[in-house]
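anyone seen this seq b4? input:
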Amino acid sequence: MNKNKLIQTANLIEELSWLLESSKNVSLKEASMLIRNLLNERNNSIHDKISFSIDNEGKTYLVGVLPKILQDIELFKSNSEMLDFAEEVLLLKPSRAAKRSRMEYIGWIVCEVSNTKNENLDSLYKYLKDIFSDDLRVEKIKKAKNEVGFSWNQIIRNL
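predicted toks r here
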C-alpha cells in the first residue's frame, strides 16, 4: 500500500468516528429496523398494484399485445384495415380524416383501450388470446383476410 492510500484510509476512519460520536442518540439497530419496515411496506404496496392489474387482466393483456398484433403487416396491410379492426372488434371510433401514420394510430388505439371502461374487453381478451397464441390460427386468419366478406366478428364468433 502506498502512503497516499494509508492517509486516505486514516482520514476516512477519523471522519467516521466523528460522525458516530456526534450521533450518539441515534441507534443504528433502530435505523436498520426502520429501513426494513419501509421495504416491507413498499413490497405490500407493489403487491396491491399487482392485485389491481389482475382485476383488469383483459385490459392489461390487450394493452400489452395490441402493438405487436397491429404492427403485423400481413394481418393489417393498411391503416384502413387496422381501423376496421379497431371499430369492429374494439368498438372504438377512430377518426379516419386525421391522416395519421400507422404508429400514431397504434398508439391511439392502445391508449383508447387503456382508458376505456368497457366490460367487453375481458371477453375480447380471451378470444384474442386464443387466436394469437395459436400460430396456425393466425395463418388461417391472414389467408381469410384476402377473401370477400371477411369479418373479425365472424372469426371471434367461430371460436
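The helical segments are 3-22, 28-55, 57-70, 79-88, 102-115, 120-132, 135-144, 152-157. Confidence is low (pLDDT under 50) at residues 46-54. kinda curious what u guys think
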